[in-house]
UniProtKB/TrEMBL annotation:
It comes from Paenibacillus glycanilyticus. It comes from the Bacteria. It is found in: Cytoplasm. Its main location: cytoplasm. This is DNA-binding response regulator. The modification 4-aspartylphosphate is found at D55.
Length: 546
């Protein structure tokens, strides 16, 4: 919609223009009026006017003088000139001022709307051109960074073809032989926490903020281009470009600037991060090796010594990092057996012992990542074998820990251990649900177990873990079915068996005590007396006499 300003000292003419104009058809939303040039200029300064209609003969400031001001101060404002004088001087100024049309009084409907249509068409064409220009610039500004990102990623994964992309090489400084490059990998250790607390869970907004900070801080000495890693959303890749510098200078400057950047990230955004700096290189294609060294530096950071942000520039791959993680070595079958038996306490103990073993030595971020990934694969397999349905498990998830409703942030070995233990709890809960759904619980199974294994150290927690039920629920069911509690029943079975064994004169009371699972003879004797109000020796004597 457009707004038109009529500047004319004659009210009848202004009214005629209002009546004759096809304003609706021309998409004109408002027609304003001014009685002279001064008032017209005031309205132009206050209002957003799209088209002005100017009478050439007005008191004070003439139309010719007004056109000169418009040409100077509003060069893009289209104007239609109205005059009752077919005078060359007026016409010459109108032509000089590039007016849209020149109308003679008296105004008729056809000429007026033709002139107005010409002006509106000019405005529309101008808006289309401006829109196309803006869109081209937006597209260019958005596509150039994306193009550079794709080029760097193709170099990193070694799929870049120089001949095919030769025209784009200047975009990344590959056409300048004086340029030196280095890749940096930055890992946010508490990304989930920061993303939720400060970025409304928008990971793209977080990446944008961090990349801008990295580019700005590193840009003091380098041209820095930062972008999110497509394989791991808590990682950003930074490509540093420096002109005409020695490799040693790049290494020193990059270490200094990344320490500065990580300190700023922690102070301003609360992000705890580690960064690995790759080896400086002179050829653009060597960025792939620099990136691999940076990635290895991050993976080699010792989780035990990590305190806040950290920059690593040791590009050597740590020995054994790609080997099997030893923490669960020799424990996998034990873990499987515990899960099959429903021994959740045993499963937790096995994992806890493995984690304790890891805390006794250097343990890197790379090892932690690998152990979490392999533990999830292992537990997925066990869970499927024990009846958990596939949709309940993070089988093909990009972020399996988050699928479990857990945060995969860890900036210390304690936090890493918590992720492992919480992940185990997730799988135990899934197995519990599957087992309870697939196998109906029989309280008689507990009675049968006690009848056959009365000599063991029997605890209610054993049955709670095995059947994935609460101890209170099991105790209630047992008492309803058999008229006594589980501990009471265990004691009854042991005491009945004790009388049976005491009837055999060939067995010593010490042997009987051990056969019944008591700690020692005295403890057995005390329990027997409390139950029968007679000692084992007195019972044996009475049996002989009877």
């Amino acid at each position: 919609m457009y707004r038109v300003l009529i500047i004319d000292d004659e009210e009848p003419l202004r009214e005629a223009i209002r009546i004759l104009g096809d304003w609706k058809g021309l998409e004109v939303s408002e027609v304003l009026e001014a009685t002279d040039g001064k008032m017209g200029l005031e309205l132009l300064a206050q209002q957003n006017i799209d088209l002005v209609m100017v009478d050439m003969k007005m008191p004070g400031m003439s139309g010719a003088e007004l056109l000169q001001v418009l040409e100077r101060d509003y060069p893009d404002l289209p104007a239609i000139v109205i005059s009752g004088y077919n005078d060359f001087e007026y016409t010459r100024q109108a032509i000089r001022s590039k007016v849209v049309d020149y109308l003679l009084k008296p105004i008729n409907r056809l000429d007026l709307n033709a002139a107005l249509r010409k002006a509106v068409d000019l405005l529309e064409a101008r808006r289309v051109r401006e829109s196309e220009f803006i869109n081209r610039n937006i597209t260019l500004n958005m596509s150039l960074p994306k193009l550079k990102e794709k080029m760097y990623l193709s170099i990193i994964d070694r799929s870049f073809r120089s001949q095919t992309n030769e025209a784009f090489l200047p975009l990344i400084g590959a056409d300048d032989p004086d340029n030196r490059f280095a890749a940096v990998v930055l890992r946010m250790l508490n990304m989930e926490q920061v993303r939720k607390a400060r970025f409304h869970s928008d990971v793209d907004l977080l990446h944008f903020a961090v990349a801008n900070m990295l580019n700005e801080i590193a840009g003091e000495y380098f041209q820095a281009f930062s972008f999110a890693s497509p394989k791991q959303d808590r990682e950003l890749i930074v490509i540093l470009t420096m002109k005409g510098a020695y490799q040693e200078d790049i290494a020193y400057r990059s270490l200094h600037q990344m320490n500065k950047a990580l300190a700023a990230l922690q102070e301003l955004l609360g992000i705890i991060a580690v960064a690995g700096i790759g080896s400086p290189c002179t050829a653009i294609m060597e960025i792939a090796s620099s990136y691999e060294a940076a990635k290895a530096s991050v993976s080699g950071v010792d989780l035990m010594r990590l305190k806040g942000y950290h920059v690593a520039s040791n590009t050597a791959q740590k020995a054994g990092q790609d080997q099997e993680i030893p923490l669960l070595s020799g424990r996998v079958q034990l873990l499987r057996t515990a899960l099959e038996a429903g021994n959740t306490a045993g499963a937790r103990t096995i994992v806890a012992e493995a984690l304790k073993k890891g805390s006794d030595r250097e343990f890197t971020l790379g090892e932690a990542d690998l152990m979490v990934a392999r533990f999830i694969v292992l537990m997925n397999d066990f869970s499927l074998e024990l009846g958990v349905t596939r949709e309940k498990l993070p089988l093909m998830e990009e972020h399996p820990v988050r699928f479990m409703g857990l945060s995969d942030d860890f900036a210390s070995y304690e936090q890493f251990s918590a992720i492992m233990e919480d992940a185990l709890s997730f799988y135990l809960e899934q197995i519990r649900h599957a087992q309870s759904a697939n196998r109906p619980f029989e309280i008689g199974d507990i009675k049968a177990y006690i009848d056959n294994r009365y000599f063991e150290d029997i605890k209610i927690s054993m049955f709670a873990d095995k059947y994935f039920l609460s101890r209170e629920y099991i105790m209630k069911l047992f008492k309803q079915q058999f008229g006594c509690g589980i501990h009471e029943y265990v004691q009854r079975v042991r005491m009945d068996k004790a009388k049976e064994l005491l009837d055999d004169p060939g067995l010593k009371i010490q042997d009987i005590s051990e056969m019944l699972g008591f700690k020692d003879k005295n403890y057995f004797s005390k329990a027997f007396r409390n139950y029968f109000s007679i000692s084992p020796t007195e019972y044996r004597t009475a049996s002989k006499e009877g």
